[in-house]
Amino acid sequence: MEQKTNENKITFDLINGTFLPQETMEIINHIIQKKIDFHEIRNFSELIRFGISNENSPQRIATLASHRKALNRYLKNAKASNELLDIKATISIVPSSIITL
Questions:
Q1: What is the 3-state secondary structure (H, E, C) of 55-88?
Q2: Which end of the chain, C or N, has fewer beta carbons within 10 A?
Q3: Does 94 reside within a domain?
Q4: Total domain count for the chain?
Q5: Are 53 and 43 within 8 A, CB to CB?
Q6: Contacts of 14 (CB under 8 A, 6+ apart)
Q7: Residue ranges making up the domain that contains 63
Q8: Is residue 30 part of a domain?
Q9: Segment holding 91, helix H or strand E
């Protein structure tokens, strides 16, 4: 997997390959579920600690669930057509601001 770094940025391929529709479904659904779990835990934690929900998490959960539903429809069609699928997912991290405490 290719990795590029400099002082302010790191970029690497998280996924880069050809997969069967079932494999694609497993990989992507797992990633989406982990993101949903993250937002559910974050939201629950803030609700317990501060008495309010995280303002972004409920919307992000809904968006991820919608993406997962659309993806599964797409993959169902790909499976019926016996298609192999290329997945390319790149992670790129750059600073956006400095945190002051």
A1: CCHHHHHHHHHHHHHHHHHHHHHHHHCCCCEEEE
A2: C
A3: no
A4: 1
A5: yes
A6: 1, 89, 90, 91
A7: 20-83
A8: yes
A9: strand 85-93
In a domain, 99, yes or no: no
Find out whether 14 and 90 touch, Cβ atoms under 8 Å: yes
- Give a yes or no: residue 25 inside a domain: yes
Q: Which long-range contacts (CB under 8 A, 24 or more apart) does 60-63 make?
A: 60/35, 61/36
Per-residue pLDDT of the chain (101 residues; tens, 9 = 90+): 566 766 789 999 999 999 999 999 999 999 999 999 999 999 999 999 999 988 899 999 999 999 999 999 999 999 999 999 999 999 999 998 887 87
Two structure tokens written together for 19: 């997969």
The secondary structure of 4-43 as a DSSP string is EEETTEEEEEEEEEEE-HHHHHHHHHHHHHHHHHHHHHHH
